[in-house]
Amino acid sequence: MSQDSFYMFDGSVKKLPCTVQSYVFSNLNQTASENVFTGHNGEFNEVLWFYARTGSNQINACVAYNYLEGTWWTGSLTRTTWIDREIYDNPIATYYDATATANNETILGLTNGASTVYIQEQGNDADGQPMTAYIKSGDVQIAQGDEFAFVSRLIPDVQNQSGTLNLDFEFMRYPNDTSPVSKNTNFTSTTNKIDMRGRGRSFNANVVSNTAVTAWRLGTMRFEIQPDGRR
């Protein structure tokens, strides 16, 4: 990870194509770049970079690359060290809080500043609290956005789902539309289809979970779309 791109080495240095490059580097705090570090999550074929976003001098974000699938994701996971599973069954990471104090034993002359050790990739919550997770699509359109599309039905295909998932749509009439029409629905593992009505030159879909009992893995999302006849 450089100051504006990602690179790989396979005998020679090559720039790594990144679908979230603009998002990451336009929000990167360059003055805190010395805090950036990398971790490896071998179970999921991922390399993770932890960095500080603009407005923070401490690490508060991460970006990950799946080198097997060639995909990227971003998040707000705050960690200051990371080690992949080797001796232990799960990756181990720490988070340093400059305002916290150790409470596991009595320490004379104790000052603020303590690290919490986390066992990663265990459970479906954030240390007992709900963990918000989402997958958002890019813009979907008909004929390169020349015609309005009418969406009438959604057919979910989600693996290992427990709990309820929320689905948020944004329908846009024009590329620079500042007031997209929002539609919201939800579904469970027994939902076969969702009938709906939405129109726009383009739309995007966002699958969201924000409860502690929810687990899921997205397979595919199918939409019934037809031209609306308007331009």
Provide the descriptors you would attach to this structure in a database record:
17 strands; 231 residues; 2% helix; mainly beta; globular; 5-stranded antiparallel sheet; 2 domains; 4-stranded antiparallel sheet; Jelly Rolls; 46% strand
What can you tell me about this protein's structure?
By secondary structure, the chain is mostly beta strands. It has two domains: 7-119, no CATH class; 133-227, Jelly Rolls, CATH 2.60.120. Helices cover 2% and strands 46% of the residues. The protein contains one helix and 17 strands. The strands form five sheets. Strands 10, 11, 13, 14 and 16 form a five-stranded antiparallel β-sheet that branches. The chain is globular, with a radius of gyration of 21 Å. The model has no long low-confidence stretch (mean pLDDT 88).
SSE diagram, text form:
Layout: E1 7-9, E2 13-15, H1 21-25, E3 37-41, E4 46-51, E5 61-66, E6 71-75, E7 81-83, E8 92-97, E9 114-119, E10 133-136, E11 140-141, E12 149-162, E13 165-172, E14 181-187, E15 194-200, E16 202-209, E17 215-227
Antiparallel strand pairs: 1-2, 3-4, 4-5, 5-6, 7-8, 8-9, 10-16, 11-16, 12-15, 12-17, 13-14, 13-16
